[in-house]
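Sequence, please.
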């Protein structure tokens, strides 16, 4: 390699490269549910926002082997968008937010129309239904009522929750209603996870605004190796079935326009700690 610069003598460096004959696959074997709020991005771009820009942001996420998912969507996602994302490696998607109580009929009515469509599209085996976000005992009965109603109608659709239930359903009555349990990383229990797997269920884990140090997280203020550990060695060691995260573009809520200058910008990159 010859390195040249104006006013300097060129420097030649020998370089030996070995190229391995393999290609990294699209997507990842580890299922993931990473919420992406596209409306926030469109709001910052204003009247310049268009379908091409929206697709560009989606491709950016997919190219990093994450899904363009949304845990709190009130309506099911566009089937064409999901088909395109699956073609680029996305391996799971949320049908809609089941709520935290009081939305049972709306959820059932929506699924009645949507489930046959994704079945015809060949996407049903990638779908799940998320709801009852971080609920406690006062909402357990509502969760069981809705999830069991869904499972009677659509037994092939896994139900997923981040409910705060350290028994993972054995003491709360949710064992038969929930297919995918998602505790925070500090509350993940490998023995309980293995027992769930023997029952045909799953245990994922997640991080969000918590946990904080010494636990690994993706705050920009933390060592960047933690993101590698969470999705790689840690998930492998503890044999998690999937990874849930809220929210990949959270920082956009505190900024009103895209970066327009640099390297020192008006953009606030800080985490919500």
């Amino acid at each position: 390699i010859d390195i040249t610069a104006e006013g300097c003598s060129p420097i030649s460096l020998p370089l030996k490269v070995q190229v391995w004959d393999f290609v990294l696959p699209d997507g990842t074997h580890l299922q993931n549910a990473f919420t992406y709020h596209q409306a926030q991005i469109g709001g910052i771009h204003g009247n310049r926002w268009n379908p091409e820009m929206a697709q560009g942001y989606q491709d950016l996420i997919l190219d990093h082997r994450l899904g363009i998912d949304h845990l709190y969507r009130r309506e099911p996602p566009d089937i064409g968008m999901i088909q395109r994302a699956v073609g680029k490696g996305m391996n799971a998607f949320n049908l809609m937010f089941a709520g935290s109580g009081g939305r049972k009929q709306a959820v059932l009515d929506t699924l009645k129309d949507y489930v046959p469509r994704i079945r015809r599209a060949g996407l049903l085996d990638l779908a799940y239904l998320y709801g009852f976000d971080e609920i406690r005992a006062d909402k357990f009965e509502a969760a069981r009522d809705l999830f069991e109603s869904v499972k009677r109608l659509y037994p092939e659709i896994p139900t997923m929750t981040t409910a705060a239930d350290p028994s993972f359903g054995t003491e709360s009555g949710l064992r038969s209603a929930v297919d995918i349990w998602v505790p925070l990383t500090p509350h993940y229990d490998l023995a309980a996870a293995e027992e769930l797997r023997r029952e045909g269920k799953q245990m994922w884990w997640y991080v969000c605004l918590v946990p904080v140090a010494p636990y690994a997280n993706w705050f920009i203020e933390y060592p960047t190796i933690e993101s590698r550990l969470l999705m790689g060695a840690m998930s492998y060691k503890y044999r998690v079935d999937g990874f849930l995260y809220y929210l990949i573009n959270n920082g956009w809520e505190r900024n009103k326009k895209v970066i327009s200058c640099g390297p020192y910008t008006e953009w606030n990159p800080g985490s919500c700690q």
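The two ends are 46 Å apart (CA to CA).
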